[in-house]
Design a protein that fits this description.
With 315 residues, this protein is mostly helical. The chain contains 15 helices and no strands.
């Protein structure tokens, strides 16, 4: 009996040791680019994602990754740096969205953007010799295929987006939540629109090789939407959005490693679960609170309270 218990104890210790070793391998050298790249991308996605939700531009956040899709396909076909193709077509998508008012309702124009760019991407991929692998990598990401040489550009772009977003936080927030009030305060509406869409295009093009075309917008929208359920204070919700984006990608990488399931599955599923759980908790949504406060300020300004007090409506 003692020998049986002894063998069982040794087997338990062996299983525990194997699990510990596998857990440590999750941070092995071949996995480090995954953790580093995803962490930097989450910084940028959480930051610009906050304004994506405030501006109610979720459809645009879905359209721009799909507009970058043919750029990645063109890079596969021609052998150029994929980032050049992704950024080039992402900014073509920005131009398309900006000119959409001439084509009719904005949602209709963005729908045309989605269909036309997807069709072009399918054509370009059909001309390559690695159709299936290329499609999978562009649609669902290839997070374990990130080379070390890509870490520095990814980190630099992500930090640049974060820095620009932080520096332009107040005017971008005001223009996003109360465009008329922002105009009264002298904020250039078109300039803020170009700034937002430009940053969004950069983030989507950079994140696309990691999480894929179909799930970039999940990383942009889910943490920000959940953050606004946790706080009505803009700066606090902004920071929570970044923290939740980091938590989302770290959890997705860990679960993907342990289960051998695709990373994109966990990014999409965890993002949806996070928002649904917080929404079900009945926590305070931030955007209505922000818009209500700014609307009251705008009303006081129009009725002379701002001019009589000698203060700006955004102060």
């Amino acid at each position: 009996m003692d020998s049986v218990l002894g063998r069982k104890h040794l087997d338990d210790r062996s299983a525990t040791t194997q699990r510990l070793r596998r857990g440590l391998l999750m941070f092995a050298n071949y996995m480090l680019p995954t953790w580093i790249a995803a962490s930097f991308l989450a910084l940028a996605a959480g930051a610009i994602g906050y304004f994506t939700v405030i501006r109610r531009s979720v459809f645009a956040a879905h359209a721009l990754p799909l507009s970058a899709f043919p750029g990645g396909a063109a890079a596969v076909l021609t052998g150029i740096d994929p980032m050049i193709g992704l950024l080039g077509f992402a900014f073509l998508g920005v131009l398309f969205v900006q000119q959409s008012s001439r084509l009719g309702p904005k949602d209709l124009a963005i729908g045309l953007l989605l269909s036309s760019f997807l069709a072009l991407g399918a054509l370009l991929l059909s001309l390559t010799g690695a159709y299936a692998p290329a499609v999978y990598a562009l649609l669902f990401g290839e997070v374990l295929g990130i080379p070390h040489r890509e870490l520095l550009p990814t980190a630099a772009v992500s930090l640049l987006v974060l820095a620009v977003t932080v520096l332009s936080f107040r005017p971008l927030l005001l223009q996003s939540a109360a465009a008329d009030l922002a105009t009264i305060c002298g904020i250039n509406r078109a300039g803020m629109e170009w700034l937002f869409l430009g940053l969004l295009a950069i983030v989507t093009a950079t994140a696309l090789p990691v999480v894929g075309t179909l799930l970039v917008f999940t990383l942009l929208v889910a943490p920000a939407a959940a953050a606004q359920r946790l706080s009505a204070h803009p700066a606090r919700a902004f920071l929570i959005s970044i923290a939740l984006a980091e938590l989302l990608v770290w959890s997705a990488i860990a679960l993907s490693y342990w289960s051998n399931w695709p990373l994109g599955f966990f990014v999409g599923t965890l993002g949806a679960v996070l928002f649904v759980v917080l929404r079900g908790g009945g926590l305070l949504p931030s955007p209505p609170g922000i818009r209500a406060r700014l609307s009251r300020r705008e009303a006081r300004w129009h009725h002379g309270a701002g001019s009589n007090s000698g203060t700006r409506p955004d102060g």
